[in-house]
Amino acid sequence: MTSYFVNDVLSTIVDRGRAIVERGRDRRPSGRDLAGLAEDLLSGRGEATGVALARDLLDTYSTLDSAGRTAFFRALATKFGADQAALEKAAQAYVSDPSEIAAARLHAASEPRRQELIRRLNRAPGGTAALVAMREDLLSRLRDHPDFKPVDSDFEHLLSSWFNRGFLVLRRIDWSMPAATLEKIIRYEAVHAINGWDDLRRRIDPPDRRLYAFFHPALVDEPLIFVEVALTAGIPGAIGPILAENRQPIDVSQATTAVFYSISNCQAGLRGVSFGNFLIKQVVEELERAFPALKSFVTLSPAPTFRRWVEAQRSAETSAMLLPADEAVLALTDEPDWAGDNTIAEQVRPVLTRLAAQYYLQAKSDRGTPPDPVARFHLGNGARLERIDFLGDPSPKGMADSYGLMVNYLYDPKLIERQHEAYANAGEVAASSAVKKLLRGAPEAPLQIALSA
Q1: Residues 243-290: pLDDT tens digits?
Q2: CATH of the domain at 213
Q3: SS (H, E, C) 219-239
Q4: How far apart are CA 52 and CA 123, in angstroms?
Q5: Based on the domain organization, do 352 and 269 belong to the same domain?
Q6: For FRET with 36, which of 55, 77, 140, 165 sits at 20 to 30 Å CA-CA?
């Protein structure tokens, strides 16, 4: 009821503001027109007029074609930075008098005008959702327009503040949730596709299954990120039994392990805004309270760039990662059905698992971090690389991404902080002895540049 009341009040403010603004359009809007509207919004002082202008700008933006949106981002990059004259004056004042007051004025002068513009746009009804969608458009243009990166930095800075942990609400997703929310879970699943309502029910209804999501008050019924959990009697080495249609649920009193088998970010416009680590930690706490017998918290994770890395080693003129005999074995994986032939699979197993250990423990991206994005996420959150699972995901996607390889990361509450610090400060990859043993017989390879992070 409170939400509806607030929305009604905001709608009234917008309507009255629009009556004051009385803006009409006789021609198709463009990014250039939008820049003028942004100037009006920044120069305005009245609350009703400002909210109406903000909504007007967001509505106009939604009607622009791709070229118009690009023009608007270009205007943000070139016309809405810091006031150079004010910045220079504040800098000179600070040099003359390096006081706290002068520093505060210098800080204020250095802020790009577009940050205040984004704040004012956020005041409009639905402004937060519109800005998240706008940033998604912006991100899609950064490769071709690197000069837009300062604009993205401002978006990321503000969105990180608005979506900090204090504003997020953890909810368990079950069959009582609104259908619209459940449909979004189906649509947003990015790791193991949910094939309709029956498949979703199998993932959230049985007593040994859980699904948790973070929500934000400004994005009603829009999940930000969610994790799917299986309660099992041990650490699984394959995804098939977890997703099987005809599997029998276990007695949760016998469960010793919580398996995070899928983590999906739902809002592309919030890329770089970190809340995945908070999600895992809070879900661990929820599960510990509900199931005190749980002893292990692990993932069953994909290795999305492993095959691409191996193929790069194979195509290189020389590779410090490959043994002379590896190519003949790896050539067997060029056949589409090699995984179904047990004889071939057993020939391939030792080579792929050894290369996987090299991939995780030796290879580095051009930023000096592990080349695998999933590894960077979990290792950065303090997990340990626990086990490499050969043919853990023999689906077409799994084979295309990683030769079917999957990985278990272990979250040990007693070691999370120590392992996080070792990774953050020294780039140290925490790994079990079982994974380290896979390096036996590997070339004495130096740390190497692999895939771009």
Answers
A1: 999 999 999 999 999 999 999 999 999 998 887 778 888 999 999 999
A2: 3.40.630.180
A3: ECCCCCEEEEEEEECCCCCCC
A4: 9
A5: no
A6: 140
- What lies within 8 Å, CB to CB, of 298 at 6+ separation is 235, 257, 258, 259, 260, 386, 408, 409, 410, 411
Q: Which domain holds residue 277?
A: 166-299
Q: How many CB atoms lie within 10 A of CB 164?
A: 13
228 near 184, Cβ under 8 Å? no
Residue 72 structure tokens: 């608007």
Residues 47-54 have a mean pLDDT of 85
Confidence of residue 441 (pLDDT cuts 50, 70, 90): confident
Q: Is the pTM of this model over 0.90?
A: no
Considering the domain architecture, whether residues 81 and 222 belong to the same structural domain is answered as no
Overall number of domains in the chain:
3
What's the pLDDT at 287? 95
The residue type found at 146 is P
Residue tagged active-site, from 378, 420, 433, 452: 378
- CATH code: domain of residue 95: 1.20.140.90
3-class DSSP state of 173: coil
Tokens describing residue 400: 């295309």
301 is catalytic: yes
- According to the model, what pLDDT value does residue 31 have? 62
Confidence band for 413, pLDDT divided at 50, 70 and 90? confident
CA distances from 186 to 197, 241, 275, 432 (A): 8, 20, 21, 34
Using alpha carbons, list the distances in angstroms from residue 200 to 174, 186, 188, 194, 220: 10, 7, 12, 6, 21
**What is the average per-residue pLDDT within 389-396?**
96
Alpha carbon distance 199, 204 (integer Å): 9
Two structure tokens written together for 101:
């007051």
Cα 145 from Cα 143, distance rounded (Å): 6
440 vs 445: CA distance, rounded Å:
12
Torsion of CA 447, 448, 452, 453, to 10 degrees: 0
Q: Is the model's pLDDT at 1 over the cut of 50?
A: no
- What SS3 class is residue 231? strand
pLDDT in tens, 89-111: 999 999 999 999 999 999 999 99
Q: Does the annotation mark 107 as catalytic?
A: no
Q: Residues 58-81: what's their mean pLDDT?
A: 96
Phi-psi region of 207 (alpha: psi -120 to 50; beta: other; left: phi over 0): alpha
Distance CA 192, CA 300 (A): 11
- In DSSP terms, which residues pair with 406 in a beta bridge? 302, 389
Helix (H) or strand (E) holding 371: none
